[in-house]
Specification:
Blueprint (H helix, E strand, L loop, with lengths): L7 H22 L4 E2 L2 H8 L10 E4 L9 H8 L13 E4 L2 E4 L5 H33 L6 H15 L7 H18 L2
Parallel strand pairs: 2-4
Antiparallel strand pairs: 1-2, 3-4
Helix pairs in contact: 1-4, 4-5, 4-6
The protein binds zinc ion.
Zinc ion binds next to α4 and α5.
């Protein structure tokens, strides 16, 4: 435990603030974002459902996504470590991917897995999983939604011709999480 202990009520409020942040950023960036690069569309369509192929992508130049205001407040209060969206290579806001660095096909694939996780879980549940994973250790790598994204993107990068269903993989992952949660007392 990395020093953040939240009551269930605090956790719920915290997640509510994050959901608002995600929705605000999605609205802000969507108009400037473009459809998936035509050069990669055909390849990606073998892995993702049609809805995910409508995801839009934006590469920021000379700016970073803003951090949620409440993160700054928590930092001033000495609560942390916290995950700064502005420090990540990319952030997916539901169906809008914002890259903050030049990106590879593998990185795009990883973010599209997040888009599929958002699609299946909904923003509220996505953020619940995300925050719980982070609070458990304070480490980005321990967020299970991230681990699954990295795992599937690696599989794609190693064999881009070997199509598999990301939707089925994410669905199986979600079912496994709920089975694991229900076997805990
Ligand atoms: Zn990620």
């Amino acid at each position: 435990m990395a020093g953040i202990e939240l009551s269930p009520e605090q956790l719920e409020k915290f997640i509510g603030l994050l959901v608002n942040y995600i929705e605000e950023q999605r609205k802000h960036y969507r108009p400037a974002a473009a459809p998936l690069p035509p050069s990669q569309r055909t390849g990606l369509a073998k892995f993702f459902p049609a809805a995910i192929m409508d995801t839009r992508v934006l590469k920021l130049e000379g700016e970073r996504v803003p951090n949620p205001e409440f993160l700054s407040v928590l930092k001033i209060m000495g609560i942390g470590p916290l995950l700064d969206p502005s420090s990540l290579p990319a952030v997916t806001f539901v169906d809008v991917i914002v890259f903050q660095v030049p990106y590879t096909p593998e990185m795009l694939f990883h973010e599209l897995v997040h888009a599929e996780q958002f699609r299946q879980l909904g923003t509220q549940k996505f953020m619940q999983h995300y925050v719980k994973g982070f609070l458990a250790s304070g480490r980005f790598e321990d967020i299970l939604l991230e681990r699954h994204g990295f795992e599937l993107a690696r599989r794609y990068a190693q064999q881009p011709q070997e199509a598999f269903s990301v939707a089925a993989a994410v669905q199986a992952w979600i079912e496994q999480q709920y089975r694991a949660a229900s076997t805990k007392h």
